[in-house]
Amino acid sequence: MATRRGFLASLLAAASLPSLGWAEAGSPSHLACAGDPDGTFSLHGLRSDGTEAFRLPLPARGHAGCGHPTEALAVVFARRPGTFALVLDCARGTVRRRLSPPEGRAFNGHGTFLAGGAVLATSEQATGTSEGVLGLWDVEGGFRRMGEVPTGGVGPHDLKRLESGQVLVANGGIATDPTDRTKLNIATMRPNLSLLDPLGDGVAEVTELSPDLHQASIRHLALRADGTVGFAMQWEGDPDVLVPLLGLRASDGTITLAQPPEAEARLMQGYAGSVAWSGDGIEVAITSPKGGRIQRFDAQGRFLGHASRPEVCGIAPLGTGFLLSDGLGGLLALQGDEVRPLARAEVAWDNHVVTL
Amino acid sequence: MRLALALTLLATPALAGVEEAVNAWILPGVAAFAESAGTLARSAAGDCTADALRPAYLAAWEAWAPLADIRLGPSEAGALSIAYWPDERGAGARTLRGLIAAEDPAGLDPVAYAEVSAAARGFPALDLLLGDPDLSGYSGGSYACRLVQTVAADLAVQAEALAEGWQAEAQALTTAGAEGNAEYLSPDEAFRAIYTQALSGLEFSADTRLGRPLGEPGTPRPTRAEAWRSGRSLPNVAASVESAVGLARELADGPIPATEAALDQVHHAEAAIDDPSFQDLADPTARLKLEILQQRIRALIDAMEAEVGNPRGLQPGFNSRDGD
């Protein structure tokens, strides 16, 4: 009991500290989770030149995270099935809160701040049915659970807050076993993109792709300033069938699918792991760690070119181009056709790089 | 599924093995392939009939087979349209029959042919055109004859482009870790890249080159073997194995006795197989011999991992194997 009281006391102490901004955390531009050579895991704050602003240990493998818009707070989500999320004070290097999903819910790896940072929204699924919910947490009230709204689909993954305050959710469509991520409904899965107003009426407006693409799991999202969203997909159907792995959703809801040339499509191995817009918003790119490949498209979904990099997955805007991270510890800048190494760390960068 | 490996720690500079693998194996291989593909195209221009062309076609396969599983740099996309296989949906045969029926002008123009579906280009296309009884009886001057000339010319162009592309890839591999090398950030990455090709080639041979015609017990699928019409099914497996071990010898610091012993076992299993096209798989003895070869190749993978990969700290990929 002494231990537990001590832990609560330190939480209270932390909560009463004045909030610090990102400058106090070394002014990182990006966050990334990593696996360390000794088998442990960590969260890294990265500057735009690839140098490290901070590094904090994690208790287990992380997936993605999100940064608070003003305070130096990062929320890091465990890899699925997610039993915890950590709120990290990146300036002081301490754990501010450990969030556990309510009974019957599991975190699905992604989250975002709403209402200027007053609310945290977390992508979650019901452990029994995989039905999606957006968990809502009151940030100023010490990350108290406020409630939840349905996401309008099964197996939600990434989510993005739009300028309107609405949230776009990628409902991946895959029902999973609550303990081991075994996929249960591949034959009948129906992914969708859903638009909801979690702090308002909460009713989801759902868009599905054509029925022949019902096995293309919509998993990751990238938002451009004008509201255009790039969505990355993972094909669960016949591997010999080539399908688009990138779609674009215009702010009026119109969907365009991006189709690369045949050989390019095949080399992605049916898998897009991350998606990002270039810093200037002119290009959108997807990565495939399975194919060790990055594909660039224009905003109309026309194929522009590729780059190769083993184990590449993380991608984010950097300057006018892109930042890439990979499982070999590489951080690279991608500008047009050109790849330039920034740094190589003795870590394996995890699936995503989050822009602050 | 191709293997993917990630390198952890260990920063011993090992460009020696990489340089040898590139200079002693890969570069001479792509040059020899470009030459035999050129010979094939010239032979086709001279006499396009199936019987006349077959020796040059088989010689080109012989040159390609050791390179078939190396999927680095220009070979990543290049291999797909040189030897697209397996063609699960029969797209190659469908496209070729369609071209012939329509006498499509794309089939007469090697430049336009580069836009045709990968399944109807390169070796698989020639395997059908020269080996399928319905297709191979064409006469000199027919559309099919000119299509064969086009496919051979397109293959020669691809082989030339591959050899040229490999000059830059060889430079990138052998200067791994140098300032400004964006492809390989350290010598370890170049080692890992080549080692991965060797292992995934063996895995592809065991799982797909042998696994696909074996099918399920009781339902062999001999016509799912690679290039069975040309009798190349077993020679392609053998070439893939020799290439993988050849690369491993270059990469390793010293002798690799367990790998050599495992290779001997593979050779014995290969020698026991009667039909190099695997068309006798309905016979339980023939089936067993193929299964034994499959097991021996898997044992070779284990030996290579233990002797070549593990000492360098190579382990399965962090992101490519995980997914989310």
From TrEMBL, chain A:
<dbReference type="Pfam" id="PF07433">
    <property type="entry name" value="DUF1513"/>
</dbReference>
<feature type="signal peptide">
    <location>
        <begin position="1"/>
        <end position="25"/>
    </location>
</feature>
<protein>
    <submittedName>
        <fullName>Putative exported protein</fullName>
    </submittedName>
</protein>
<dbReference type="InterPro" id="IPR006311">
    <property type="entry name" value="TAT_signal"/>
</dbReference>
<dbReference type="InterPro" id="IPR008311">
    <property type="entry name" value="UCP028101"/>
</dbReference>
<dbReference type="InterPro" id="IPR011044">
    <property type="entry name" value="Quino_amine_DH_bsu"/>
</dbReference>
<keyword id="KW-0732">Signal</keyword>
TrEMBL record, chain B:
<dbReference type="InterPro" id="IPR034984">
    <property type="entry name" value="Imelysin-like_IPPA"/>
</dbReference>
<feature type="region of interest" description="Disordered">
    <location>
        <begin position="209"/>
        <end position="231"/>
    </location>
</feature>
<keyword id="KW-0732">Signal</keyword>
<dbReference type="InterPro" id="IPR038352">
    <property type="entry name" value="Imelysin_sf"/>
</dbReference>
<protein>
    <submittedName>
        <fullName>Iron-regulated protein A</fullName>
    </submittedName>
</protein>
<dbReference type="GO" id="GO:0030313">
    <property type="term" value="C:cell envelope"/>
</dbReference>
<dbReference type="Pfam" id="PF09375">
    <property type="entry name" value="Peptidase_M75"/>
</dbReference>
<feature type="domain" description="Imelysin-like">
    <location>
        <begin position="27"/>
        <end position="303"/>
    </location>
</feature>
<feature type="signal peptide">
    <location>
        <begin position="1"/>
        <end position="16"/>
    </location>
</feature>
<dbReference type="InterPro" id="IPR018976">
    <property type="entry name" value="Imelysin-like"/>
</dbReference>
